[in-house]
Design goal:
Number of strands of chain A: 5
Shape of chain B: globular
Number of helices of chain B: 5
Distance between the termini of chain B: 13 Å
Shape of chain A: elongated
Largest sheet of chain A: 5 strands, antiparallel
Oligomer: heterodimer
Strand content of chain B: 15-25%
Order of helices and strands of chain B: EHEHEHEHEH
Strand order of the largest sheet of chain B: 2-1-3-4-5
Helix content of chain A: 55-70%
Distance between the termini of chain A: 31 Å
Helix content of chain B: 40-55%
Strand order of the largest sheet of chain A: 2-1-5-4-3
Chain lengths: 288, 123
């Protein structure tokens, strides 16, 4: 659990609150606008039905004129029918326009919903990564992001041991920590990722969902970087059965973890080294 | 105003679910770390819906479902399971115990919101 000291400061909370209010207001107005359009749509449908009935009634009376009715009355009826036909056409055209608009709004609404969902994932992941300076808790948070947000099933966090040129396992999920291979930092796809600083994703094997058990063949490797230096990797060998493909937000989460997880781990490690002593943050003012 | 209880041992996941539920106007959200904590909160407050994980320490989500369904005062509360367990037999087991819905992680917020609204019968 995070300590009170690790919680965001008041201005940060205000910002979070104002963001949340903005999103809520945005969706509320969107929903009201959609409701208005639906209401207008209903009114137009009703008017079209009314006009259809009127037109039928008039056409029927024009085709069977009452005995003694004059030619003038008949002409008036025909003119009225034409007028109503015109009105009907105009209404139908407006109706089609509203339908198109409805469809566009529906699609935009779903795009915004998806985007909002993605942002919520990134916001919570980022918030949690920086919510603690306790190393064990932070490690657990990284594992939880991979398990719950990405849908990874078998995976590990490994750190680069520069001294011995090999990887050291910090934590794992879906596999015992002792069984995670700790290879050389220069070998295979992991070595390529450490060298290049770019993710490795075996899209073909992920799509086929086959052959995902080999520990020497990960399907996803994400570098953990401090600035441009790769200090560790997230290695994923398998995804949860219901996770059939990677989504846009997964790539964003990989980017977030690549950029933030390592520095968060380093901060937590430094805090551990201080053995509970609180650094005098005010002294930083003289260093900037 | 309706009240939801989110039962989840992972603070990260709990925050994500709470974040999604806050988009339902008028819904108050309470949180619990596990089944025992959930039962304490159920005893202390009037709750309208429960969203629970399965794999939790102390008391897991399935035991919580059993306890709620056998309690006269609580048995009518709708329960949504939110879990990483994606196998069909896990889903069937949870539904047989009395869960009303079963959602697998990773979650999509609109799916969770829609299910809560459906079970609470709110627009």
């Amino acid at each position: 659990m995070s300590k009170p000291d690790d919680k965001p400061t008041l201005p940060e909370l205000d910002l979070v609150e104002s963001k949340r209010e903005f999103i809520e207001t945005f969706f509320k107005r969107g929903a009201e606008f959609t409701e208005e359009l639906m209401h207008e749509n209903e009114k137009l449908r009703f008017r079209v039905v009314q006009l259809e009935e009127e037109r039928r009634a008039l056409a029927s009376s024009a085709s069977s004129p009452m005995p003694g009715a004059g030619a003038g009355a008949l002409r008036e009826l025909v003119a009225r029918i034409e007028q109503l036909e015109g009105e009907r056409e105009s209404l139908m055209s407006r109706f089609a326009g509203v339908e198109r608009l409805n469809h566009d709004i529906y699609e935009r609404y779903h795009d915004i919903e998806r985007e909002n969902n993605n942002l919520a994932n990134l916001y919570v992941a980022s918030f949690q990564l920086h919510s603690t300076m306790e190393l064990r808790e932070l490690t657990q948070i990284i594992l939880e992001i991979l398990l719950n947000f990405v849908g990874a099933k078998t995976f590990a966090i490994q750190l680069v041991d520069d001294e011995h040129g090999k990887l050291r396992t910090l934590a794992s999920e879906g596999i015992e920590r002792a069984k995670v291979p700790e290879g050389s930092v220069a070998e295979g796809h992991v070595g390529d990722v450490i060298k290049s600083g770019h993710h490795y994703i075996d899209g073909e094997r992920l799509r086929a969902r086959a052959d995902l058990q080999h520990l020497d063949r990960p399907v996803i490797v994400v570098p953990l970087k401090i600035r441009d230096r790769v200090v560790g990797v997230l290695i994923i060998w398998d995804l949860l059965s219901q996770k059939t493909a990677l989504a846009d937000v997964d790539y964003e989460l990989f980017n977030l973890l690549a950029a933030h997880a390592a520095s968060a781990l380093q901060g937590a490690w430094l805090a551990t080294e201080l053995k509970g002593r609180t650094p005098h943050l005010w002294a930083a003012a003289d260093q900037v | 105003m309706a009240t939801a209880l989110v039962v989840e041992d992972s603070p990260t996941m709990r925050q994500l679910i709470v974040f999604a539920l806050r988009r339902i106007r008028g819904l108050e959200v309470l949180e619990a770390d596990d089944g025992v904590d959930a039962l304490r909160k159920l005893a202390a407050s009037k709750l309208d819906i429960i969203l629970t994980d399965i794999n939790m320490p102390i008391m897991d989500g399935l035991k919580l479902v059993k306890r709620v369904r056998t309690d006269e005062a609580l048995k009518g509360i709708p329960i949504i399971i939110i879990t990483t367990e994606g196998a069909e037999e896990d889903r069937q087991r949870a539904l047989a115990l009395g869960a009303n819905a079963y959602i697998t992680k990773p979650i999509q917020a609109p799916q969770v919101i829609a299910k809560v609204k459906e079970l609470l019968k709110i627009a």
